[in-house]
UniProtKB/TrEMBL annotation:
<keyword id="KW-0547">Nucleotide-binding</keyword>
<dbReference type="InterPro" id="IPR018485">
    <property type="entry name" value="FGGY_C"/>
</dbReference>
<dbReference type="InterPro" id="IPR018484">
    <property type="entry name" value="FGGY_N"/>
</dbReference>
<dbReference type="GO" id="GO:0006072">
    <property type="term" value="P:glycerol-3-phosphate metabolic process"/>
</dbReference>
<dbReference type="GO" id="GO:0019563">
    <property type="term" value="P:glycerol catabolic process"/>
</dbReference>
<protein>
    <recommendedName>
        <fullName>glycerol kinase</fullName>
        <ecNumber>2.7.1.30</ecNumber>
    </recommendedName>
</protein>
<dbReference type="GO" id="GO:0005524">
    <property type="term" value="F:ATP binding"/>
</dbReference>
<dbReference type="InterPro" id="IPR000577">
    <property type="entry name" value="Carb_kinase_FGGY"/>
</dbReference>
<comment type="similarity">
    <text>Belongs to the FGGY kinase family.</text>
</comment>
<feature type="domain" description="Carbohydrate kinase FGGY C-terminal">
    <location>
        <begin position="290"/>
        <end position="489"/>
    </location>
</feature>
<keyword id="KW-0808">Transferase</keyword>
<dbReference type="InterPro" id="IPR005999">
    <property type="entry name" value="Glycerol_kin"/>
</dbReference>
<dbReference type="InterPro" id="IPR043129">
    <property type="entry name" value="ATPase_NBD"/>
</dbReference>
<dbReference type="Pfam" id="PF00370">
    <property type="entry name" value="FGGY_N"/>
</dbReference>
<comment type="pathway">
    <text>Polyol metabolism; glycerol degradation via glycerol kinase pathway; sn-glycerol 3-phosphate from glycerol: step 1/1.</text>
</comment>
<keyword id="KW-0418">Kinase</keyword>
<dbReference type="InterPro" id="IPR018483">
    <property type="entry name" value="Carb_kinase_FGGY_CS"/>
</dbReference>
Length: 536
C-alpha cells in the first residue's frame, strides 16, 4: 500500500501546475443537496457552496422533491461561489458543467416555469404496480436490447407515465405541447439558460441521462418510438439529446437571477452523476472499472464503443439468454461531440454504507460510522458469520425486491467485532458479485466515496476481487467529472485522455490472500444469498 500522489500516466503532480485565474464551474445536483464547485485548470477546488433540499415522503415508497426549491438552491450556491471567486480576484469562468442524480424526473409548464408536481425521485417505488402489469404483458426485458434496461420503477419512463395519468390536465397539455419533461440536469439547464423569461432557453439533456429513462435507444442515440408508445409519452414532451460534451447554450444571468459576470458563460458539459464520477476518476478506457461507496454503491465497467447487453437476472430465455452481464444495466458512459459513444455495464447496490449506519443506529455496536474499522480489526476474521444486507431487496445482479436480510453462522463465540467484520465483508462481496456478473476481466478497481476511506474494507475488497483496489486522492470526483466535460467543451483539453491527468491517485491495496482462500470466502457468501431469497 502506497500513499504516493501520482497521475494515471505515472507522473507526479507538480506543485502550482497551471497557475492562472481561469476556472470551470461544476453544478452537482445530487439526491440530498446541490453544490456549485469552481475548479482551476489543474482540477483543484477553489470555491465551494452547498445547500440541502427537502426530502418529501407523502406515503410509504413515495419519494419527492421540490424542483422549484432545487433551482432556488442552485441559483444560491452559484451566487455564493461567484462571490468567493470575486474575493480571490478570479475572472469570469470559462464554462459550466452540470451533473445530476439521473432518473429523478419533473414536468413543468414552459410559459410559467412552474412544475405541475413535485419531482419524483429515483428511489420512488409508487409505479411498481404499473411496471408489474406491463411486464406481465410484454416481459420484463421487452426493452433491454434497445434501452439497456429492464422494466423497473427506478427509471424515468414510469415516473413520467404516472405524472401524465395522475396530474389533472397533464396528459392533454403534453399532447398539445404545453408541457416539458426532464431529469434534473434538464431542469437546471433550462433555468440557467433563461427559463420562462429567456429568449434562448434550452430544453436538452445528454446521452448518459437519456440512457437512464427507459425511453432511449442507446445504439441509435435517439428516443425509441416503441418505448414512447408503451409508456404513453409524447415525443414533444422530451428534451433534445446531445453528447455529454456539447455547446448546450449560454447562461442568461438576468433571466436566471444570477450575477452579471456569469452572463453568456457557455454550458459545455452535461453528464449523469455516476458517469461523471467515472470521468473524474479517470476510469474512461475499455476495461476500466470504478466503484463509488456511499449509502449504496454504483459500480461501472467501461465496455468501450459497443454496448454489452445482459440477460435477465432470472435467466429468462430470449435474445439475451447466455450473454454476459446477467442482471447488470447497460448504459452510456460518455460521448464527446464528433465521437462514438462509450458504454458501460452498471451494477447498483442499495445497501453498503447504510449497513454501517445500521450497526450504529439499529444495533448500537458503534458510536460513529468511522468506528467500524477499529472494531472489525479486533478480530482476525468474521468467525464464519455472513450478513446479506437485503434491507431493500437485492439489486444487481439479482434484482429481487422480495429478498430480505439474513445473518448466518451465528454461535456464542461471535462478538461485536465479528459482526463488524462481517458487515465490511458483505459490502465487498456485493461489489464482487457485480464484477463477476459483468463477465469482464478488470485490471484494477478505482474507488471513491465515504466508505473508500476505510482501509480494512478496501483490503477485503482487493482480496475478494483478486485485483488491486486503487483509491483516489482527488476530492469530489463527480463534480470533477462535470468540470472535465465542460473543459473539453471549452477547448481546455482535447478529450477524456487528457483529463485523466487531473485524477490524483492515492493508496493502492493489493490482494493478500490466495485463490483457495478467496474461493472459500466467496462460496460462503454464495451459500448465504439464497437464504435471503427464501431458497435455502
Amino acid at each position: 500500500m502506497s500513499a504516493a500522489r501520482t497521475r494515471p500516466d505515472g507522473t507526479a503532480t507538480p506543485a502550482g501546475e497551471w497557475h492562472g485565474g481561469e476556472c470551470l464551474i461544476a453544478v452537482d445536483q445530487g439526491t440530498t443537496s446541490t453544490r456549485a464547485i469552481a475548479h482551476d485548470l489543474a482540477g483543484r477546488q477553489i470555491a465551494v457552496a452547498q445547500l440541502e433540499h427537502d426530502q418529501i415522503l407523502p406515503r410509504p415508497g413515495w419519494v419527492q422533491q421540490s424542483a422549484a426549491q432545487i433551482w432556488g438552491n442552485t441559483r444560491a450556491v452559484l451566487i455564493t461561489v461567484m462571490e468567493r471567486l470575486a474575493e480571490r480576484g478570479r475572472p469570469r469562468p470559462l464554462a459550466v458543467g452540470i451533473t445530476d442524480q439521473r432518473e429523478t424526473t419533473v414536468l413543468w409548464d414552459p410559459t410559467t416555469g412552474v412544475p405541475v408536481h413535485d419531482a419524483i425521485v429515483w428511489q420512488d417505488t409508487r409505479t411498481q404496480p404499473f411496471v408489474d402489469a406491463l411486464a406481465d404483458r410484454v416481459g420484463v426485458d421487452a426493452l433491454r436490447r434497445t434501452t439497456g434496461l429492464p422494466l423497473h420503477p427506478y427509471f424515468s419512463a414510469t415516473k413520467i407515465a404516472w405524472l401524465l395519468e395522475h396530474v389533472d390536465g397533464a396528459a392533454d397539455a403534453a399532447r398539445a405541447g404545453r408541457l416539458l419533461a426532464g431529469t434534473m440536469d434538464t431542469w437546471v439547464l433550462w433555468n440557467l439558460t433563461g427559463g420562462a423569461r429567456g429568449r434562448r432557453t434550452v430544453h436538452a439533456t445528454d446521452v448518459t441521462n437519456a440512457s437512464r429513462t427507459l425511453l432511449f435507444d442507446i445504439t441509435r442515440l435517439d428516443w425509441d418510438d416503441r418505448a414512447l408508445d408503451l409508456f404513453g409519452v409524447p415525443r414533444a414532451l422530451l428534451p433534445a439529446v446531445h453528447p455529454s460534451v456539447h455547446a448546450y447554450g449560454r447562461v442568461d444571468a438576468r433571466a436566471a437571477g444570477l450575477p452579471g459576470v456569469l452572463d453568456g458563460v457557455p454550458v459545455t458539459g452535461v453528464i449523469g452523476d455516476q458517469q461523471s464520477a467515472a470521468l473524474g476518476q479517470g476510469a474512461t478506457r475499455p476495461g476500466d472499472a470504478k466503484n463509488t461507496y456511499g449509502t449504496g454503491s454504483f459500480l461501472l465497467v467501461n465496455t468501450g464503443d459497443r454496448p454489452v447487453f445482459g440477460r435477465s437476472a432470472a435467466g429468462d430465455d430470449g435474445p439475451d439468454a447466455g450473454a454476459p452481464a446477467g442482471g447488470l444495466l447497460t448504459t452510456i458512459a460518455f460521448r464527446q461531440e464528433g465521437s462514438p459513444a462509450a458504454y458501460a455495464l452498471e451494477g447498483s447496490i442499495p445497501v453498503t454504507g447504510s449497513l454501517v449506519q445500521w450497526l450504529r443506529d439499529g444495533l448500537g455496536l458503534i458510536d460513529h460510522a468511522a468506528d467500524v474499522e477499529a472494531l472489525a480489526r479486533t478480530v482476525p476474521d468474521a468467525a464464519g458469520v455472513t450478513i446479506v444486507p437485503a434491507f431493500s431487496g437485492l439489486y444487481a445482479p439479482w434484482w429481487r425486491p422480495d429478498a430480505r436480510g439474513v445473518i448466518t453462522g451465528l454461535t456464542r463465540y461471535v462478538t461485536r467485532g465479528h459482526l463488524a467484520r462481517a458487515a465490511l465483508e458483505a459490502i465487498a462481496h456485493q461489489c464482487a458479485d457485480v464484477i463477476e456478473a459483468s463477465g469482464l476481466e478488470i485490471a484494477e478497481l478505482r474507488v471513491d466515496g465515504g466508505a473508500s476511506r476505510n482501509d480494512l474494507l478496501m483490503q477485503i475488497q482487493a482480496d475478494l476481487l483478486g485485483v488491486p483496489v486503487q483509491r483516489l486522492d482527488t476530492a469530489e470526483t463527480t463534480a470533477l467529472g462535470a468540470a472535465c466535460a465542460a473543459g473539453i467543451g471549452a477547448g481546455v483539453w482535447r478529450d477524456v485522455d487528457e483529463t485523466r491527468r487531473l485524477t490524483v491517485l492515492g493508496d493502492r491495496f493489493e490482494p493478500a490472500i490466495d485463490d483457495v482462500a478467496r474461493r472459500a470466502a466467496r462460496d460462503r457468501w454464495r451459500d448465504a444469498v439464497p437464504r435471503s431469497l427464501g431458497l435455502a
